[in-house]
Design goal:
alpha/beta; 2-enoyl-CoA Hydratase, Chain A, domain 1; 6-stranded mixed β-sheet; 3-stranded mixed β-sheet; 11 helices; Enoyl-CoA_hydra/iso; ClpP/crotonase-like_dom_sf; Ech1-like
Length: about 250
Amino acid sequence: MPVNSEQPEPGITVVTVDAPPVNALTVRGWFDLAEAVRKAGEDPATHVVVLRAEGRGFNAGVDIKEIQADPGYGALIGANQGCAAAFAAVYDCAVPVIAAVHGFCLGGGIGLVGNADVVVASEDATFALPEVDRGALGAATHLARLVPQHLMRALYYTAGTIDAHQLHHHGSVYAVVPRADLDETALGVARQIAAKDTRVIRAAKQAINGIDVQPVHRSYRFEQGFTFELNLAGVSDAARQDFLDGK
């Protein structure tokens, strides 16, 4: 299974993505991730969720091979809906979600991290939205939660990369640690939250979401509309194929 959950300590549920070789999730994988995070938040025994990954990097976005193999638009629509579901599950989770990021965090990974409550990262962590190079749009909504507006635009238009130390400077990454210390650092933050009265923390999550100035669900779906336009125009299919061909 590319997504699994465990409770290593009282009050803490760890959701792990493990989809070799690069944690690029299929349509089913995105929906499985959404379900895992949602179910964790609904469990009264869970006070906090840690979202992490195995392998070379945290997340490489959608499985482009799956989309290209579909002669119609079913896989594309499924990927868009699956991403929206997973991002929403993190944001709407009844308890705080801590993202523990290592290696690369690309595309859909930005959606997950941007909607998390706390982000910790290893020193080798890098973040990027290569969407424009794939003929797609999306997750500027979430990148805007990690960096200031003009930097977000520059990174988006150039498909540029930013590292964990830079995000720490902007305050969106809570801590940057050696790779070997990442899981323990995430668990350390989780323990602090799990020790609180979960009734208060769950109310706090609702309250913070309620005063959020960013309408994350609506703005992300708005972005996705332009992806559909680019696909109907034939732009996206060519861009995805160029990527798979190594051009």
